[in-house]
Amino acid sequence: MNTLTFTALAETLLGEVHWITADRGYCRCPGRQFHTHPNGKRDCRVTLDRVPTIYCVHSSCRSELERVNHELRSAIGRAQRNDNDPIGTRKCPSPEDIKRKREREAYQRLKLRAEKSLPKILETFATDPVEFFEESPVRLLDDPANDWRFLLQLFEPDDVIWIGGIYDSGEGRERNFRRVADWLVEPRVPGPLICPNPFKTGVHSRSNENVLDLRFLVIESDTLTKPQIATVFAWMRQFLRLRAIVDTAGKSLHGWFGYPTSAQLHELKNILPQLGCDPALFKPSQPVRLPGARRGQKTQSLLYLDLGGVR
Length: 311
Fold this sequence. Notes:
Radius of gyration: 25 Å
Order of helices and strands: HEEEEHHHHEEHEEHEEHEEEE
Shape: elongated
Strand content: 15-25%
Number of strands: 14
């Protein structure tokens, strides 16, 4: 069997490998998320001679390495059997097949881990919404009817923002897409809903295709209580910057976070629904509650706002 086939299989499982010989190289540890000490560039290596093996200097990733080592050896073993089979009755999985299988397995593990994590998150990061109000970088002591003006300061003055009701999209609804500077001349809150990402100039349809830039990911839940979703926000602050929390004047809170990297987004799409969060808000054009607007007898309001470093 060609050594290049082995290295291709290894890279399918491990990602980029820095090969120092034909069958030995350094890679990113597949159990890196379990490491409890700082990582070095040469902490993890893979060897393909004799018994293919991934080694790591960290011990906390041992169980994950055992699983990936088994997968690597199985893939190379199948490749060898296929190469030695003159009839070709065994089909060796391609690198693409292995990658898809690995992604499916990773998703299932992530999903299961997320489902089991919620009780621990609720215990470890327990937070009452009033704590966010008290620590808000912007003191929110004025009339909540003006909170929409504060929230719009998260955007640039020339950003085109959609504000309106649920059906204010499509031809004839151009005035629902305006620059922030133009919205701010309105004497009162211009609508109950806002999209958290700016749109292209000249559009009139609230669609993902018309979104210009991804600025914020808004998280909310229809099943968690306000203290519970506030606790999820506290947990998320470990890896995303919290910019605002909106009390919807209903049963839920909306947390505005700086938009995640593509890798973070991929994981959050798998994790957050298992924690009880609404997956619809991953749509860039999904409308959310605008503070300052009335909802029944109550006013939607800001609970937390961080404007630091916006411009």
